[in-house]
Amino acid sequence: xxxxxxxxxxxxxxxxxxxxxxxxxxxxxxxxxxxxxxxxxxxxxxxxxxx
Length: 51
Known about the structure:
two-stranded parallel ribbon, 16% helix, alpha+beta
């Protein structure tokens, strides 16, 4: 990204794997992976574009 400050973090997924002593984005909403139907739908629609 040319200007990372323009890419705001809206939600954190996968916080069940968070290392306890790492402090990052403490004020950003967080969700355990697959905890809600909306999250499950979001992850189901992801596509891997790695070659």
